[in-house]
Amino acid sequence: MRCRVRVGLLAALAAATPSLPARGQQAPAVTPTPAPTPPAVPATPAPAAAPEPTASQTDVALPLPTPIAPTALRIRDIPSITVEKLPAENPYGKTVDAPAGLPPKLTFADATIPAAFFLSVHVDPAGKPTSVRRDRDPIPSLAAETLKSVSRWTFAPARKAGQPADTWGTYRVDLEVEIRSPKIAQMTLTPVPPSAAVPKPFDWKTDAEWLDSRHVAAPEDGSVPIDQVDTAPIPQKSPWSADSFKGPFSAKYWVLVDKTGRITKAVALEITDPVLLAYIRKSMSAWLLRPAQSAGEPVDSWNELVLAGQVSYSDEIKQIIALRKGIGP
Fold first, then answer.
1. Nearest 10 degrees: Cα torsion 136, 140, 144, 146
2. pLDDT band at 115 (very low <50, low <70, confident <90, very high)
3. Model confidence, pTM
4. Which three-class secondary structure state does DSSP give residue 220?
5. pLDDT value at residue 37
6. What is the pLDDT of the chain when averaged over all its residues?
7. Any idea where the domains of the chain sit in the sequence?
């Protein structure tokens, strides 16, 4: 993926927000209708939130069973960092008399987060998936189960001029992910010295920005491009076993700790699963740290924060949207 750096690299971090878990179900059979098809409509109403990518008028929304309403804290808006260029010198490092410090324990809470998973599936004229590609996966820790699940989906094949067609179907799978409070085994906060090289942020754009950036050439395997079929291949059954994870996680950030001990800016540098970006950033807003000191006074300071431990979450498919645009590789 493309990486650009903004001069205000760390100051550009957007606040983040989460959603709910559940277990994937088989989607009811959906009979595709000729384009234009109505825009995708979520299976259940969601709270007002930052806009998420919408399907075009020819996209097809595939409803799933009504989910159980969430009870955990809801977080919206996964933060994105755009990197246009790296400054020649580090403007964030500062020499202080006493560095900022973490509290004995960091607070976390259970939360639910919406996450969009984009994938491409090669569907033959009989409606059989012959190949699956994860184009943008918010939970790579579940990659193996995800591929296994999608390979078991059944499809109504694409059609062109009234005949079944071989094509790469492209889909946005909207998930709700329940993240349970992680157990932290390691947490360090290290001052950023003036001599430190400015790192490259973790490249995770918003869903809309990522989708707009995809300009894919026609497939070389002889299949019909998805934007040239009359109707896209529509999943008829969508079993989902990639619905839970429990295991290790790690994250690294550069954070600005202000003179009151609050983290006011944060830039993700490394993360095991991008679905954790919004969750961790939201958790940071509740922390109270010891601010750095210079000449006996509290001062703002940039620091490198490293977290590691065990986390668990579960997820549920809320809807599947058939796109009319190639999105990978």
1. -50
2. very high
3. 0.73
4. coil
5. 44
6. 81
7. 10-30+57-323
